[in-house]
Amino acid sequence: MKETKGVGIEMADKKFSFKKLMEYYDEVLSLPHRTEVARELRDEEDLFMLLIYSDMLGIPNPAFYYTLELYPHIIEKFHDWHLRMGMEKSPLEGIRCC
User: How far apart, in Å, are the Cα atoms of 59 and each of 50, 96, 97?
Assistant: First the structure.
């Protein structure tokens, strides 16, 4: 009976080590792509911010009325966005972030 428990523990250790091995494998595969994924997410967020603020920047946006509800949620990100877009100061008069 004790030998059975010993075998069970060894099997549990092997499963644990196999699980660790798979985690390590996933980590190794995803490591070179983390910066690419982060860059893609940032680019998508920048495009989204451009769509949200397009009417204020002079670009017609037929969905402007519907994006007004998003302003309170994204206003904190506005400063970082206009700096990334190369605008030293806020281009909008109604929103003062700098």
Answer: 10, 20, 21
